[in-house]
Design goal:
4-stranded mixed β-sheet, alpha/beta, transcription, D-Maltodextrin-Binding Protein, domain 2, Arc Repressor Mutant, subunit A
Length: about 475
């Protein structure tokens, strides 16, 4: 004789039945107003009891697909048809927002919408003739869309989810919101608590300057098998921190870049070079990306790294004893913000369903899921600042520290550079930091190559002034 099914087997079988009926309704097998076959016929078809079948039918009632008419039957009421959306995002979203499981949650609430995921860049996607319906992008990519006059390829959205106001500002152009913020992070200092305890070095706090960090990193380094500090310098979310901390921005005059000689900008560039060339604290390591540095940190090879809350998801299932602190500063506390949002392409023929998906990612339900299952910071202020249990996730004890440094957040655009100029700037900075060119050559090359690449918002300001 067959044994009774386990509780798990029962629920799996019931879900199969519900999914089959759901698919048949959404595929139009049963017209609106028609009745499903009788419960006895369905029970026989699926080889389950009438009682079990009724449990499954309750799910379809809650989803708004059918209504139960006493003594008559189960009538189809939905006019919805199945919709399949294409979502384009960077692969990191699998980690940063626990994408696959987040979509499972979405599908459970909106069973008539299916989401196919592709990986890529929002910039490339906007140039396609058949783009994805929905896409995830960061604030620097949005800045590039604005500067290349492609922001109008995105659908203006209505703000939902009560995010921090500065997050919506990052995706707003000419008074219109083009992406719903979903997660963000400041660049912070991530450190190994055990290393600090072993060497009797006080842990970092918000008063640290880079000189404090250098002294601590020297004490933490030792034996050639451990270094005090490391970060992936070429990352667009690492090197700009030093320039932002200078307190200055690039200045322009009639479309030409003013020289950075004798400026705090240049001093910040020199400070960065001094740190990465200090072989007592910084390893000569050819990292391919920030994940490589993250791996060194997880292995205990470095004591401190520049990091963000999204990348900390790489540490979520490790045993490393770590915490976070505000990034050291030069003159006053400043750090870089990384902001990700979800946008809808204007060419999408499924805007209603796309809006449902975008709104879900920004909703309290979606934001709470991200908060509970990742180390990423949700865009919704209420959710981000609420205490949540995070079972099975190795998160920093000072997770909420980000609230204390919101005042210090800056954007790439605060440097007064276009995205094109950013690309040219880092090319020359890498040459300088690698000792291929000297300080004077750096200043000359920057002034020569960046001139003519005035940031878009400066050009707009000049045009407005002319009209006045």
């Amino acid at each position: 004789m067959k044994g009774r099914p386990t509780q798990r087997q029962f629920h799996e079988r019931l879900e199969e039945v519900v999914q089959t009926l759901r698919d048949e309704i959404l595929d139009g097998r049963y017209r609106v107003g028609s009745f499903l076959p009788s419960e006895s016929v369905l029970a026989e078809r699926f080889q389950i009891s009438n009682k079990s079948l009724r449990i499954g039918l309750v799910t379809l009632v809650k989803e708004g697909l059918i209504e139960k008419i006493p003594s008559v039957g189960n009538r189809v009421v939905t006019r919805r048809t199945r919709v399949t959306l294409t979502l384009m995002c960077p692969p990191s979203m699998l980690r940063d927002i626990n994408l696959r499981k987040l979509l499972d949650e979405f599908h459970a609430l909106h069973p008539w919408i299916r989401v196919d995921t592709i990986f890529g860049s929002a910039i490339n996607e906007c140039e396609k003739s058949n783009p994805a319906d929905v896409m995830v992008l960061n604030q620097l990519q949005f800045q590039e869309l604005v500067e290349t006059k492609q922001s109008d390829k995105l659908e203006p959205l209505r703000e939902t989810g009560s995010p921090y106001p500065f997050l919506t500002e990052a995706f707003t152009f000419k008074g219109l919101l083009y992406a719903q913020p979903i997660i963000f992070s400041p660049i912070v200092l991530c450190y190994n608590k055990d290393h600090f305890r072993e060497r009797n070095v006080p842990e970092p706090d918000g008063s640290w300057t880079w000189e404090h960090l250098i002294r601590a990193a020297t004490a933490l380094s030792g034996g050639g098998d451990r270094f005090g500090l490391c970060f992936h310098l070429p990352s667009e979310n690492r090197w700009p921190v030093f320039l932002l901390q200078s307190g200055e921005k690039f200045e322009w005059e009639e479309g030409n870049l003013k020289s950075i000689r004798d400026t705090r900008l240049l001093e910040s560039i020199k400070l960065c070079k001094r740190i990465i060339h200090n072989r007592d604290i910084f390893p000569l390591y050819l990292s391919e990306n920030s994940d490589d540095v993250q791996n060194l940190f997880a292995e205990g090879k470095v004591s401190m790294i520049m990091n963000n809350y999204m990348s900390m998801n790489e540490l979520a299932h490790t045993g490393i004893h770590y915490d976070v602190s505000a990034l050291p500063f030069i003159g006053e506390p400043r750090t870089l913000s990384v902001i990700c949002g979800i946008a809808i392409h204007k060419q999408s023929l499924k805007k209603e369903a796309a809006t449902v998906l975008a709104d879900y990612f920004a909703s309290v339900h979606g934001q709470e899921f991200i908060r509970k299952t990742t180390t990423s910071i949700p865009a919704c202020k209420r959710v981000a600042e609420a205490p949540y249990e995070m079972p099975g996730i190795n998160s920093p004890s000072r997770y909420g520290m980000f609230r204390d440094i919101l005042f210090s957040l800056r954007k790439h655009s605060d440097l007064n550079l276009s995205v094109v100029a950013f690309g040219q700037l880092i090319k020359h900075l890498k040459a300088y930091w690698s000792d291929l060119i000297q300080e004077e050559q750096l200043c000359d090359r920057l002034q020569q190559s960046l001139s003519g690449n005035t940031p878009a918002f400066t050009l707009q300001d000049e045009a407005a002034a002319i009209q006045k």
